[in-house]
Design goal:
This protein is an alpha+beta fold. The protein has two domains: 181 residues, no CATH class; 178 residues, no CATH class. The chain contains 13 helices and twelve strands. The strands form two sheets. A six-stranded mixed β-barrel has the order 4-5-10-7-9-8. The protein is elongated and about 105 Å long. The relative contact order is 0.19.
């Protein structure tokens, strides 16, 4: 009952100066709103990146070729195609714990059907590619190992390519020209969306890698291989086995740099989220500074309030109120200010997250954790910055307070 009465007294005191109360809460309101918006943007970006990384496949290991120097300059990974067909076959046959291996030979070229044409990424891949990428077919069938061995002119196309070339007609069984060579479309892919590099994965053509190397690129080596470990726990073992095998095959002695690089899905995910983490931290700093400024504002206003209400405090002390009662009264006023500001800030933050999502096209996810954290933070600010003014009020001498003009 005493606590409830004190709370009502605090509300009555705050209502006496509505404008000052509102202006005092602004720092808390914007600080809490900023926290919620920042966390929601960060959560949305993280979820989007995780979805994009997951779209690469399951238990994926990417093997990139090349890292040697020429004329004193490092050529970088992927610049020197050091992976051969023999390396590919050796990984398939000799590395334990591998459930699939596929080369990836890229070529950007024109594809056409009838009077429709476009430039598109043509990927030369193995028969395991769709399983490795966890990419089901919308219609038709995958090409076979026999198609790969014979370098048959067969293709699987993405949904964007299918709509561009064939509109609403089922592409399966249709003829598509790739560099003026006729390819039979044997299947269409389900929509996949953007990859971590922001490329449309549905605007794509898949052909046997042997066909791509023979008819499109003329290449004899690979720049990358996609490898799938049978289990998530086996990724490190498979990675180590591949590294040892390639060092042996490429005659790389101890102490020399590898002419290849291995990257796991986890490493790709960590690299992709690094930038968003930095931006989230910076925005967190801005939000915390806003809350800090709001807390200082509350302490300042509470000190002014203590000075203005010195006689009131003196009367309460004179009629029997204890110092802790005065301390509790002013502390509750400060906490009420921050909690009300926190509640308004939460509503503003949720609304702001939706506005950001609607206007910028960003994915935002407002979590209960972020709301709870923002609310707790605002209450803590009230306790921390309200304690000194409340303590000062509780230590006033009743006689001196009653004499105050």
């Amino acid at each position: 009952m005493i606590l409830l009465a004190t709370f009502k007294l605090a509300l009555r005191a705050l209502r006496r100066s509505k404008m000052r109360t509102l202006l005092t809460m602004l720092g808390i309101i914007f600080g809490v709103a900023t926290i919620i918006i920042v966390v929601s943007i960060g959560n949305g970006a993280k979820a989007q990146i995780e979805a994009q990384i997951a779209s690469l496949g399951q238990n994926l290991i990417i093997l990139l070729s090349g890292n040697f120097s020429r004329g004193g300059f490092s050529m970088g990974f992927g610049m020197a195609p050091t992976l051969t067909k023999e390396d590919y076959e050796a990984i398939r046959k000799e590395v334990e714990g591998v459930s699939g291996v596929s080369p990836e030979v890229r070529a950007s070229t024109q594809v056409a059907s009838g009077n429709q044409n476009e430039f598109v990424q043509v990927f030369g891949v193995g028969a395991d590619y769709l399983d490795i990428r966890a990419w089901p077919l919308a219609s038709g069938a995958n090409f076979t190992e026999a198609d790969v061995r014979r370098a048959n002119k067969v293709a699987i196309i993405g949904q964007t390519t299918a709509k561009t070339l064939f509109s609403d007609v089922d592409p399966v069984g249709q003829i598509m020209r790739v560099k003026n060579a006729p390819f039979v479309i044997v299947g269409t892919l389900t929509p996949k969306g953007m990859n971590p590099r922001g490329e449309d994965q549905d605007d794509i053509v898949l052909v046997p890698y042997t066909t791509s190397m023979k008819r499109l690129t003329g290449a004899t080596t690979f720049r990358s291989l996609n490898i799938q470990a049978a289990t998530a726990n086996g990724i490190n073992s498979v990675t180590n086995q591949i590294a040892d095998l390639l060092r042996q095959r490429h005659k790389i002695s101890a102490g020399r740099d590898d002419d290849f690089m291995l990257r796991t899905q986890q490493e790709i995910s960590e690299a992709a989220t690094a930038t968003s983490k930095v931006m989230t931290v910076l925005l967190w700093v801005v939000a915390c500074v806003s809350l800090l400024v709001g807390g200082i504002g509350i302490m300042n206003i509470m000190l002014v309030s203590v000075t203005e209400r010195t006689r009131e405090i003196g009367v309460r002390l004179a009629v029997g109120a204890r110092g802790r009662d005065i301390l509790l009264q002013f502390l509750i006023e400060a906490i009420t200010l921050t909690v009300l500001g926190g509640l308004i800030g939460i509503l503003l933050g949720v609304a702001g997250s939706r506005v950001v999502s609607a206007t910028q096209g960003w994915v935002t996810l407002v979590s209960a954790d972020s709301i709870g954290l923002a609310f707790a933070f605002s209450a803590a600010i009230g306790i921390f910055f309200g304690f000194y003014p409340a303590r000062k009020a509780s230590r006033l001498d009743p006689i001196e307070a009653l004499r105050y003009e």
